[in-house]
Every structure is written in C-alpha cells, then in structure tokens.
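testing teh design pipeline on a random one, pls ignore if ur not involved
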C-alpha cells in the first residue's frame, strides 16, 4: 500500500527486464547512476554489491532520494562511514538499513521487553551469524570471496543494537584461520586470513557483548542471539526474570493486506513496511543511520583488532536525535 514502483535497474539487461516484469514496472535504467536522476522517484532501495552500498546511497541521497539499503551500511571503510553519516545529516532525507535480525520474532520481542524495562541494563548479549561457505558464493566481481567475517557483522550485532538502540564502544576480537582454500589470505583480494571472527565488545550501557561471524564452521546456520539483563534474560521467545512483562505484547503486529512477511525469519515485509511508514509519517525509521553505522562500524574495527591479535580498540560512535 502507498507504494508505486516507478523504475528498476540492473547492470545485466536480462535481469533488469525480469525485475521490471516481476515488479509490474514499465520503466528501466541500465544503472543506478541513471535511475537516481529520475525526478519521479522519491525513494530508492539499494540492493547492489556490498562494496558499493555507501557510494550508491550517497549518490541517491545527493540526488534528493530517500534511501533504503541492504546490509552492511558500509564495507570495511571508516572513511565511507563518515561520508555516509554526513550526507544523511546534511540532506535531511530518510535512510534505513534493512537489517533482517531487527524483525526476527525473538528480536522484536526482546526490543519490546527492553523498552518496557523488563531487562534493565543489558549485562551480556550474544549474537551469531553462521553461514557455511565451503565454496565461494557467486557475487558481483567476486566480492564475497574471502570476505572478512566482521565486515558483514550486522546480523549478529543487531542482537544488541536493534534491541536497545545502543552501541559498542570498544572491542577485542580474535580471528581463526580457515582450512577452506578460498578463505586463505593468498586466495582473496582482502588478504583476509580468517574464516571465523569472535568479537568481545563493551556496550554503551557498560555491559559486554560477544558477537560471532563464521564462514567455515558447518552445522547449524543462521542469525540468532540472546540477552541477559539486570532484571531478566531471554533466549528464543522465552523470557525469565523478575520483571512483570504481562502487559507487553511480544508478537509483531499484522502486516498490511497483501504484504507477505517473507524470508530471513519473516523480516522482509516488516522492513519494507517500516521504511514506507516512516516516510508517510515523516519520522526516523527503526534502523536509521546511527543504528546502521553502530552495527556496521563495530565490525570493521573488530576485524582490525583480529589482525592485531585481539588488541583492544575504541569504536567510533554515531548518534541521531
């Protein structure tokens, strides 16, 4: 509801034509750079390769378009994080990162309980993103091959930031060399030696968070997390604690008619609905620029820490009124 797909774009003509067919859209562009010049467009969803997310979002914002973006917000660059933050701030336009963990059932429930003070301060949080890559995943110009795990940290880091709105202030991260060939440093453009990186963060409430990202550990996969606070703890959809949360609705509200919840734990429809509703109501979307960068930049610094044998490092902070 309230959305018209004005135009679509893809660098591959056949994919662009198919995207237009699926979206019931008659207008196509050969590139994002051309699409964002169209003044009929009010908002753009950026689903390009991760290394291009920041520059594409900046370009769209500078052309006067609100922006929603796939994760991560930036790709390994603290400089691009600052540029994106300043662009959002100076344009005054809406920006939202579509972090799927934010609308997992348990994460939604955790956020509601936290806002009702059912946890108190978070003493300890855990998040994991386990995605086994025995073989390289096909990607634009091979950007996924050898990807440093903590450069793709938002699915796990959301289990603190998307619960509390808080951030990570410092990190010590350990990396584990991989036995998988394409994850060895001599076989990837990043010279990344790690297939798994486990970060221990200090959070902005003074507590701790352990956030794990792994490409080379087979078995149970997915995005998951749990929290422990001064008043209670939660794993899955089960809360245990001393706070009375009987008045807290732990279940996500229904989506508009015809909107499916979609994949990644039923998050897709809710992410789209949140972005569109934020535009209609002229308010900040849930995963705004501050949340997006606080989730993403923490991982960039974590990888730097891992390359320095777990050195404790400070993390840049982003805030939004």
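output:
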């Amino acid at each position: 509801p309230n959305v018209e797909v004005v135009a679509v774009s893809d660098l591959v003509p056949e994919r662009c034509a198919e995207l237009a067919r699926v979206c019931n859209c008659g207008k196509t562009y050969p590139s994002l750079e051309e699409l964002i010049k169209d003044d009929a467009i009010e908002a753009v969803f950026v689903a390009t390769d991760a290394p291009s997310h920041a520059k594409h979002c900046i370009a769209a914002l500078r052309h006067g378009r609100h922006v929603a973006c796939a994760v991560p917000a930036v790709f390994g660059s603290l400089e691009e994080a600052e540029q994106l933050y300043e662009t959002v701030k100076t344009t005054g336009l809406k920006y939202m990162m579509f972090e799927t963990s934010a609308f997992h059932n348990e994460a939604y429930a955790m956020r509601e309980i936290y806002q009702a003070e059912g946890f108190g301060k978070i003493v300890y949080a855990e998040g994991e993103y386990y995605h086994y890559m025995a073989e390289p995943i096909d990607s634009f110009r091979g950007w996924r091959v050898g990807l440093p795990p903590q450069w793709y940290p938002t699915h796990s880091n959301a289990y603190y930031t998307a619960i509390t709105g808080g951030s990570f202030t410092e990190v010590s991260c350990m990396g584990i060399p991989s036995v998988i060939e394409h994850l060895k440093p001599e076989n990837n453009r990043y010279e990344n030696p790690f297939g798994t990186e486990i970060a221990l963060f200090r959070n902005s409430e003074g507590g701790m968070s352990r956030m794990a990202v792994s490409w080379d550990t087979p078995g149970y996969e997915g995005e998951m997390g749990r929290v422990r606070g001064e008043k209670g703890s939660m794993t899955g959809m089960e809360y245990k604690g001393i706070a009375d949360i009987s008045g807290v609705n732990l279940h996500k509200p229904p989506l508009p008619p015809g909107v499916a919840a979609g994949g990644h734990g039923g998050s897709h429809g809710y992410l789209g609905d949140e972005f569109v509703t934020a535009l209609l109501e002229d308010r900040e979307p849930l995963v705004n620029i501050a949340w997006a960068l606080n989730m993403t930049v923490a991982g960039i610094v974590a990888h730097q820490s891992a390359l320095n044998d777990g050195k404790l490092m400070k993390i840049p902070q982003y805030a939004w009124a």
